[in-house]
Design goal:
about 200 residues; alpha/beta; Rossmann fold; 7 helices; 6 strands; globular; Probable phosphoglycerate mutase; phosphatase activity; His_Pase_superF_clade-1
């Protein structure tokens, strides 16, 4: 199966540099809505068996445009949400942000056990994402689109793609509506095909 992992459009929290991970989360900005509307154009040559998204409002709104262009209805899944910021939720403190990013980098490089203070571990986050991908695999034999979140996409790709370079993943964040393309399945592993950061 080919899997497109797409980050949501820009939100008001992105603009304010807030660690916004709780549900339902901040709404899309005007630019975020434009980014969502442009997704069907950017991916116009792709045909998807389905479009799935997290419970966050920003992911649902981003997925809606892509799904509608393909005559689909986005399916909301319980485990595709962002890595929870725990004690740092909605913080605008740069130290908290850098600490969150440093922990993400530690997970991406293979140490999944340390948890976010008051939140989940990297292993927890990957496991819940795996659960939803397994459901999607069963429904989308050819090609699927998942609209999710930047940190979660990077962590899952680094953990599950056999050819992903952890240092590359750490140093190449996904911008809003950036995406990653993988081929494979959970049983045999995934291969990274494309990293479209912007």
């Amino acid at each position: 199966m080919r899997l497109f992992l797409i980050r949501h459009g820009q939100t008001t929290a992105n603009v304010a540099h807030e660690l916004d991970t709780a549900l339902p989360g901040a709404p899309l900005t005007e630019l975020g809505r434009e980014q969502a509307a442009n997704l069907p154009i950017r991916l116009g040559q792709e045909r998807f068996d389905g479009v799935w998204c997290s419970r966050a409002q920003r992911a649902q709104d981003t997925a809606a445009a892509l799904a509608a262009a393909q005559g689909l209805v986005p399916q909301v899944m319980p485990g595709l949400h962002e890595i929870q910021a725990g004690a740092w939720e909605m913080s605008v403190d740069r130290t908290d942000w850098l600490t969150y990013q440093a922990l993400l980098a530690q997970w991406i490089r293979g140490d999944l056990q340390p948890p976010v203070p008051g939140g989940e571990s990297g292993a927890d986050a990957v496991a819940r994402f795996d659960t939803d991908v397994a459901v999607i695999e069963a429904q989308a034999p050819r090609q699927a689109a998942i609209v999710a979140h930047g940190a979660m996409i990077r962590l899952w790709t680094a953990t599950r793609a056999v050819d992903a370079d952890p240092d590359f993943v750490v140093n190449h964040p996904l911008k809003n509506t950036g995406y990653v393309v993988l081929d494979g399945n959970l049983a045999d592993g995934w291969s990274l095909q494309e990293w479209s950061a912007a």
